[in-house]
Amino acid sequence: MTARDIPPATGKLGVLTPGLGAVASTFIAGVLTARQQGVAPLGSVSQMAHIRLGTRDEGRNPLIKDFVPIAKLDDIVFGGWDPISANALEAARTCGVLDERDLAPISAELEGVVAMDAVFDQKWVSRLDGTRVKKETNKWDQAMALMADIENFRTENNCDRLVMVWCGSTEAFQQASAVHETVASFEQGMKDNDDNISPSQLYVYAALQSDVPFANGAPNLSTDLPCMMELAKTRGVPIAGKDFKTGQTLMKTLIAPGLKARMLGLRGWYSTNILGNRDGEVLDAPENFKTKEESKLGVLHKILEPDVYPELYGNVDHVVRINYYPPRGDNKEGWDAIDIFGWMGYPMQIKIDFLCRDSILAAPIVLDLALFMDLAHRAGESGVQEWLSFYLKAPQSAGDAPAEQDLFIQQTKLKNTLREWMGEQAVTHSEVG
C-alpha cells in the first residue's frame, strides 16, 4: 500500500475547549503533569497503546505515537471559553476533581490558561448562571466574536494549527429545523437570532469557518446538523461527534458485544447514575437529561441488532436514569441491573457497580481526539471522522449506514485507519493486547 503524504506535526498545536470546567481543567492538568514530571498519560490510546503491523511473527508493534506523526505533548498550547471560571486553576479547584498536591506544582501554568468570555444562553442550560459572557446579543455577532477569539489566540500563542473539542455542558434537548438545513439558512438564522440555534452550534460554525477541526464531546445537536456537515466538506475540515464515552456507556460497549458473541439473550438493562458535579447539576433539568438520555439509549440497539436477532434482543427494556447527588462530586457511581437469559430460556442476572471518576475517564479522550483530529486535517481529511467512534457514545456516521457501536470493532477501525494512512496492511483479527 502507498502511504499518504502527511505533513509533520511541526510547531505549536492550540487545543481550544468551549467549557473550561471539570473535564477541560483535568485534561490540561494531566498533560502539564505528564510533560513536567514524566507521569504516564494513563487512558490515552494515542500515547500508551501499541499498534501491530504486518503478521504477528514479524514482531512489529510500535507505539501509536511513534508510528503516526501526531503532535508532541510539549507542543500543545491550551485555551478555552467558560461562563463561570476565570482560568483553568480556578476551574480545577472549584470542580474538585484533582487534589491540591497535584495542582500545586502546575498551578502557575494552569492559572495562565485564562478563559475567554463565553457565548452563553441560560435557555439551554437552565441550572447554570453565566457571568463571564460575551456582550454581543445577536447570534451572528456572537459567531464573529468567536472567530475573532480564535484568530487572536492563534496569533498571540504563535500556533501553527488549532483544534477544538467541546467540553461544555449538555444543552437542552432540541430537534433540527429548517434553519439547520444549509449553511445559507444557518447564517440567515444567526442574523435573525433564530431561537433554535444553540451556543454549541455557534462554536462549530466559528471553528469550521476558521479551518479548525471540531470534536463534540457532549450529546448536543451540532456537528451532526446538515449545515455543519456541508460546511465541513466545503471548508475541508474534519468533524467528529458526539458525547464522550466514559463510564456507564463504556461498560455497555464492553459487555453487550460479549453477550451477542455468545448468543445470550437480553431481557432488560436498567441503568442509574448518581453524580454531583456541574454535569450532574445541568442534567438534573429534564430538558437537558432528555438530550443525554437519547445519546445513552441508542447504544444497545445498534450493538445487539434486534432486527437480526429478534428472539434474543427483540424485547429489551432499556431504562436510563441520572440523579444529581452533590456529595458524590465528580466521582460518579453507575449501577447496572442486567437481566439475561440462556439455554432453554433460563434467566440470569449481571450486576455492575462502577465507581468511576467522570473527568479522569474523559480527560484522555480529549487529548486523543485533539491529536487525531489534527492528524486527520494534515492527512487531507474533511467531514465526519467515523473512525473516531471509539471515543463517543453516539458516534456520527459518515455515510448512510449507522456508525458502529461495538467497542472492539471501533478499535479495529481506528487502528486500521492509521495503518492505511501509513501504507500498512489492515489487520482483520482481534486488536486486543
Strand segment count: 10
User: Numbering strands along the chain, what is their spatial order in the largest sheet?
Assistant: 2-1-3-4-5-10
Q: Measure the end-to-end span.
A: 25 Å
List the helices and strands in order. EHHHEHHHHEHHEHEHEHHHEEEHEH
Q: CATH topology of the largest domain, which one? A: Rossmann fold
What's the helical proportion of residues?
25-40%
Shape: globular
Low-confidence runs:
none
CATH architectural category of the largest domain: 3-Layer(aba) Sandwich
CATH superfamily of the largest domain: NAD(P)-binding Rossmann-like Domain
Number of helices: 16
Mean pLDDT: 94
Major β-sheet annotation: 6 strands, parallel
Name of the top-level CATH class of the largest domain? Alpha Beta
Class by alpha and beta content: alpha/beta
Structurally, the number of domains stands at 2
Q: Could you tell me the strand content as a percent range?
A: 15-25%
Provide an overview of this structure.
The protein is of the alpha/beta class. The strands form 2 sheets. It has a 6-stranded parallel sheet with strand order 2-1-3-4-5-10, sandwiched between helices. A 4-stranded mixed sheet has the order 7-6-8-9.
